[in-house]
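Example (one chain per record):
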Amino acid sequence: MSSLSAGNALTVLDASAILAYLQGEDGSAVVEKALEAGGACGAANWSEVAQKVRNHSRDWALCRSLLLSYGVVVEPVTVEDAERAAGSWCSGRGLSLADRLCVALGDRLDVPVLTADRAWGVAGRIRQIR
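Predicted structure:
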């Protein structure tokens, strides 16, 4: 779970995309392809996935092992990520702090960001999985 150098990750995965994959929902094949090609997940989103898996009484250790078997790198939140996420806050936009940190990570690594959250739209580097 070491940090990536900018440009090494092919895709950043939002918590909603990872959860869709783990639950076999629509779009899970898109996420699996991204996992196979190499991906990163921000620490805030990783925590969100862990919390939601545990909240639904699922086996987090098994899910964690599966995700890490693909070589997913969990990226820390940097000062720059935190400041970019704070700067991108807009009243009524609907993106949570974890969402904005995910987009900031995609910006830092200069790679696409996969999400299942339609509220994000499709602007810039954001890619919907379904």
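Caption: The mean pLDDT is 91.
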